[in-house]
Amino acid sequence: MVAASRKDDAPRRPRGARRMGFAAALVILLGLAGGYALWQRPWEARGQGVATETLSPGPISLVLSLNGKVVARESVTVRSSVSALATAVPVREGAEVDAGDVLALLDGAIAEAQVGQAQAALDAQQVRQRQAEATAERTRALGENSPRSALEDAERAAAAAASETAQLQAALDLARRQLAQYTVRSPISGLVLSRGVEAGQLVDPQTEMFTVADTSELFVEADVDESFSAYIRVGLDALLLPVGATQPHAGSVVFASPVVDSATGGRRIRIAFAESMALPVGLTVNASVIVDETDNALSLSRRAILTEGARSFVLRVENGIAVERAVSFLDWPADRVMVTEGLAAGDVVILDPETVEPGALVTPR
What we know:
CATH architecture of the largest domain: Beta Barrel
Number of helices: 3
Shape: elongated
Distance between the termini: 78 Å
Strand content: 35-45%
Number of domains: 4
Largest sheet: 6 strands, antiparallel, barrel
Order of helices and strands: HEEEEEEHHEEEEEEEEEEEEEEE
CATH superfamily of the largest domain: Efflux pump adaptor protein, beta barrel domain
Structural class: alpha+beta
Low-confidence stretches: 1-8
Mean pLDDT: 88
Helix content: 25-40%
CATH topology of the largest domain: Elongation Factor Tu (Ef-tu), domain 3
Number of strands: 21
């Protein structure tokens, strides 16, 4: 028979051992608290955390981004010089034509009748002229047997007949030129970009019948805001990215208008592709014109600069304090600008200065 042991019979831990365990735990806790305090350094003043940038010299390009359109080397809007009914339109959009090719025929029945009348009048007058000249020749042949006055009259009649013939010839030429206006021809060789007339339509000099373009060479045409127009010059390199393309194409500025459009405030420029391109006229192209390139310059994010009136400044971190510093920079439509005065390599600049008061303690992030 086994007897159950009592609680009082269990071995007891000495009191001294309990005190030693408590003391060890206390020492560990105090050590952890001290380490945390050393890490946090609560006795030191802590500044506001700020995003910063450390300036360093490097290459920078001044690039002007523009949206332009593909244009042909030459483009002509064809209109009629007369009002008439279109009787035939033999060409379609996209057709290639040579200079002088017929684009449309207009109803020129009246003009044709006028040519016929002028031709008949000229034919009759030429008969009269020949008769007058024959009479004058016979009178001269009579010599002394013919009165002098008769010879003079005959010569005057021949001269008048010749003058009348010349006038009627001019009238015939005019009638033919007027008739030719009823045949609309292409003024240049190229591609028919648009057709705005159909057979049976009444046209007049205001009607845009066709647009014909010489697409043998394509350009990108864009407007430069007058604020930056002085930087543009012929010969500047450019990168051209047509809509839908993934890789830009090299190009260069080949024309810059000598005037700024007073209505739009833009200066028109034309950029040529470095290689032959097959693009539709009117396609939108993003043009990046490289105005200047520098190998060793200081640049800064535009967000770091504050401007008040004509004064621009940044907040520079000096010994943990935000210090205001005036700067000069080349104002350019880009996220980064070139610093010209006020800062040096190694300066630490606060990127969001509007969130910090000058003189405040700061901690760069």
